[in-house]
């Protein structure tokens, strides 16, 4: 099925990044607020290099690039979002919306508030660096705090489009006071996620919503399907 997200793995760029707050160098991608989301590429050196950068160590899931942003910092309501235009969705159609994320090594904790907000006929960006005052159509809160710093974690949910959405915003959507956080380090002050492989595609005629659950023999599991 068609992926509605152009440059979904952040591979195409206009200029190799040289520092923080340069996600706009990645073709089609932008910051949505004044929070300083970042672009990482193997062509760079220093703080935005791959695999070693200012936030830790991680190879790209695909190719040689990824984006990144904070979902909390220094105990305040601080967020960093990445956004872009997409191929418009078809109202009434069922889509699988998934992203790959990895918690940066230097994060103090992981959070449970990642999600994807869809809109059309709206501004390309807004002011402020706190939580956006909206409820995203796709929330990955049920996964709990994502704390894996070694591997990429695929987050996936189903969306039934109720509009011809043509823009997405990716980031954390719970206020700092409402987050669930799991501490992984005693140092540092933030939660920071690398983001790769953003996929929005129409589902097959039969689609089973995957759940990562620990099971024992004889357990019962309920699997939602579409």
Offer a quick outline of the entry.
By secondary structure, the protein is mainly beta. It has strands spanning 29-31, 38-41, 52-53, 56-57, 65-73, 82-85, 94-103, 109-111, 114-119, 138-139, 153-160, 167-172, 181-183, 190-202.
Question: Could you describe the 3D structure shown?
Answer:
The protein is mainly beta and 226 residues long. 0% of the residues lie in helices and 33% in strands. It is built from no helices and 14 strands. The protein has strands spanning 29-31, 38-41, 52-53, 56-57, 65-73, 82-85, 94-103, 109-111, 114-119, 138-139, 153-160, 167-172, 181-183, 190-202. The strands form 4 sheets. The chain has a 5-stranded antiparallel sheet with strand order 1-6-12-9-10, with no helix packed on it. Strands 2-5-14-7-11 form a 5-stranded antiparallel sheet, with no helix packed on it. Strand 3 (52-53) and strand 4 form a beta hairpin. The mean pLDDT is 93.
| Helical content class | under 10%
Taken as a percent bin, the fraction of beta residues is: 25-35%
> Which whole number gives the mean pLDDT?
93
How far do the termini sit from each other? 16 Å
Q: Roughly how many Å is the radius of gyration?
A: 17 Å
Let me know the number of strands: 14
How are the strands of the biggest sheet laid out side by side? Answer: 1-6-12-9-10
Properties at a glance:
226 residues, globular, five-stranded antiparallel β-sheet, 14 strands, mainly beta
